[in-house]
Amino acid sequence: MPDLRRIDIGEVSFEVNLETGVAELIKERGAWELKPNYLNEIFRKRKYEVGGAANLYQGDPLLIVYGTVDAKLGPQLRVAAEDLAKCGGPLFASMRHTAIPIVADIELTPAQEASHNLILLGRPEENLVSARILEKLPIEIESGKLIVGSR
Questions:
Q1: Among 8, 11, 77, 79, which has the highest number of CB atoms less than 10 A from its own CB?
Q2: What pairs with residue 94 in β-bridges?
């Protein structure tokens, strides 16, 4: 990757520090501007790679699966899935040109389940896939609390 320090657009130049390899330019009111790079702020605070949930996703396709078991809540879960499908990228801002695909729990195919990272919407009593997967996980849900092992 080249060591990029300046971006020229027409007669406008931007000096850029690309510690993270990310720069986002936007055109507002006919003028180009460099959007603040939130990643630079994060990396100034901590000098290590992000971890936890960020490390769970390694680029495999995502698929949002919403529950349909509860006739009253199902449509609300679908709306939540549609909204979530548009989120991603920096600070989970709305994606303009793409969306994560969504599917109802009753429509999920074995091939989709095997080839995608699933984002499940709905508790086990609301989502058939959540219910099926919960049986295989070393967790319990009791009185509204998630219990992992002895924690």
A1: 77
A2: 87
36 and 99, same domain (yes or no): no
Q: pLDDT for 66-103, tens place per residue?
A: 999 999 999 999 999 998 888 765 555 666 667 789 99
**33 and 64 within one domain:** no
Residue 103 tokens read as 């599917």
Name the residue range of residue 111's domain: 58-148
pLDDT of residue 38: 47
Report which residue type is found at 14. F
pTM, full prediction: 0.58
